[in-house]
Structures are given as C-alpha cells and as structure tokens.
Amino acid sequence: MAERAPLSVAVIGAGRMGADHVRRIHEVTSGARVAAVADVDAERAKSVAARVDGCTAHADPVAAMAADGVDAVLIASPGPAHEAALLAAFERDLPVLCEKPLTPDAASALRVLEAEQRLGHRRVQVGFMRRYDPEYVKLKGLLTTGQLGRPLMLHNRHRNVTSPPFFTSSMLVTDSVAHEADATRWLLGHEITAVTVLRPTPSAGAPDGLQDPQFVVFETDGGVLSDVEIFVNCGFGYQVQAELVCERGTARVGDGHALVTNMAGRWGGTIAQDWTERFETAYDREIQSWVDATRRGEVTGPSAWDGYAATAVCEAGVRALRDGGRVEVELVDRPALYA
Ligand code: ISE
Fold this sequence. Notes:
By secondary structure, the chain is α/β, with parallel strands linked by helices. The chain has helices at about 15-25, 40-50, 60-65, 80-90, 105-120, 135-145, 170-190, 275-280, 280-295, 305-325, and strands at about 5-10, 30-40, 55-60, 70-75, 95-100, 125, 150-160, 190-200, 215-220, 225-230, 240-245, 250-255, 260-265, 265-270, 325-330.
C-alpha cells in the first residue's frame, strides 16, 4: 500500500522559534516536511530554508503559503504579525499551528475568532507547549483522578536567565506570564476572572527601568487563586515550576530532579538555561500531535478560544501592572465552535 504523503508545512518566521521548529520538523517529527520558510529578513529565510532539501525561501508569508504543495502553516513570527498570517491561512483554509500569543491584544484575537467561525470549522492550534510537557500532563492527570480533592491554590514560578534587550515591563505579562494564564485555565478547567500585579523593588540584575520581578495573582471562576512569580533576569537558569495545593494534598512539578549527582562533598544537578532546552520534549510532542491530527483531518490542542482568553487575561494584567489594584477580565461569551 502506498505510504501517505507527508504534511508539507510552510514555516512563517525564521527567528529563534521558527528555526527551531524547522529543525524539529526536519529531524524529529514524522509524517511532515518543511516545504517553505518565510521571514521579513530574506537572508535569514534563505539560510534557514537551505538546511532542508527542496525547501523554498520567501520574504512574504503569503508567498510561502502559496508555494507548491503547501498544506499546513506554522506561524512563529512576532506576535504583531500573527493576525495577518492567520487570516491569510484562513483564506486558503489551511490548518495552522500558531505560536503564542495568538495575537497581542484581545480585539485582534476576537477578529481571528470571528474569521475562524466564518470558516465554520476549527483550523488553529495555539502553541501553548506546557500542555504537552510530561510533568504538566502528569499533574493534570493526578488532579483529574480526584485523589487530591478540590484545588485551592496554584503557585507558579517562571524564571528566565536574562531578558532580551527589547523586553518591557508589560512583556513580562504578555510574553511570559501568558503561559501561566494558559496553564492555570487548562490545569483547572476554570476561566480567570481577575488579575492583580504586585511590584517588588526591581532586582539590581534587571535592566534599568524594567519592573522585574513581578508577582501576579489570578482569581478563577472556580474560586482558586493562582499566583505567578515572574522573574526574567534571575541570572542562574530557566525554571518553570507549579505547585497545586488541594484539600487533601499538594503536587508539584518543575524541580528538575531528573538527574541528581553526588560529587566532591556536594549533591545537585544542573538547571536548564532556556525554554527550548527545558521544554524540548513538550515542543516535540506538540508538533507531532499537530501533524498527526492534521493528517487525520482533525484539529486538537489549545484552540483560538484559548489563545483569545489568555490574551484577554494578559491585557487585564497589563492594566493591573500600570494602574495597580485588581482588574477584572472581560471575555465575550464562548462561541459554539469552541464549546
Ligand atoms: C518566551 O517568549 C517564551 O515563550 C518562553 O516560553 C517563556 O518562558 C519566556 O519567558 C518568554 O520570554
């Protein structure tokens, strides 16, 4: 019997994540190939495309989507470019994996939701990779068994070694805490209803003027408090941890205890230095699951609704950071397509 043709993917954005996804699809994922790469920087597109035989390079995302044989799109360009790329993919009715954030603000995310609803079927999976991390999956599995009882609190820590030079105080929320907004909604199955952001004295290790760290508190419609320490210039490593506190016990992930050494009078291990290392398995599983579902003609994983909800939470978070106090999250009613 003839083997099914691999999924031919156009990768939009050849920066850090885009280039990593090109490598992943080429070397790790089965049933897919990179057919085209686009980047506003044409030279960068060329150099990434050159790593894959037969892959074409483009400066225009639409040209990449229209390239010969393309039947799916992976968007890894900066957030402000996502809306146009998503709408272009919808025009061709192509399945899309869109890196987070879906779009930078709730109004544009709503336009994407409306456009997908006009198609009449789901086309988008949003790149919230924590949902594919084996530890997070175990945590959710345990919670679902009911053994721990009702969840009361979720404590999250999210630390980066350093922030990129363009990082602003709001981006700690929109770029980083966006993951905890999604993880909180997904783990608990609740919507986030309000956000408060507290501001400790910034670290001397943070660039001048950057409010780093921040302490964010989410309230959910199921009565849970989920807090996030976000510290993007901690200096020592990339750490993402989550501890659920429930009525009959607690459960925690992200301690990085996979390898503990005893040597020269000390015990310990190493700390990952960035998210491509810490979440490598999660990314591999996420992309494989997207490819498999797409080849079956299905759309699974975090939806455009999840992307919109996380963006709306972050928008409230940015207002809470700016104005202080507690800011309520405003969500439209969930459309039937995302029920
Ligand atoms: C980055 O954009 C990511 O998405 C990483 O997962 C996150 O940990 C980091 O803080 C963000 O800047």
